[in-house]
TrEMBL record:
Pfam families: CcmH (PF03918). Residues 1-17 form the signal peptide. Keywords: Cytochrome c-type biogenesis, Heme, Iron, Membrane, Metal-binding, Signal, Transmembrane, Transmembrane helix. The keyword Membrane applies. Possible subunit of a heme lyase. Gene3D superfamilies: Cytochrome C biogenesis protein. Residues 6-148 form the CcmH/CycL/Ccl2/NrfF N-terminal domain. This is Cytochrome c-type biogenesis protein. Belongs to the CcmH/CycL/Ccl2/NrfF family. InterPro entries: C-type_cytochrome_biogenesis (IPR051263), CcmH/CycL/Ccl2/NrfF_N (IPR005616), CcmH/CycL/NrfF/Ccl2_sf (IPR038297). The chain crosses the membrane at residues 101-122.
Amino acid sequence: MKRLILILMLLAAPLWAVQPDEVLDDPVLESRARELSKELRCLVCRNESIDESNADLARDLRILLRERLVAGDSDTQAIDYIVDRYGEYVLLKPTTSGANWMLWLAGPLMLVTAAAMGWAFVRNRSTATTSAEAALNTEEQERLRRILDE
């Protein structure tokens, strides 16, 4: 029973990230804030959203996001404000504009390059064995055949 409780507590740990004093009174604004905070990266935890992180900076970002929403910003305006202030790194899913298109294309290009290099290696290797055997004269081929038969 203790193990089950421990497992449930560990699974619920991300839910504890948002403190009760951060929660907005308006449920619509709060749900918007929760959805937007899932798209923003915690700058301390690196691969966690600010919604899941317990870091102080993530808390500050959650509060800042909620302040912007209460001030009347739209979802894009609130995200743009935070991105302007902290940089595009704060987005968990970066945009595909500007220099980021190179980052988006780098993975598939490397995969295609590696596949082409692997195909060329295998192709050259298969032709290399036949050309090495062809380089043997008849006496060497006969000797090789005797060695292999033993």
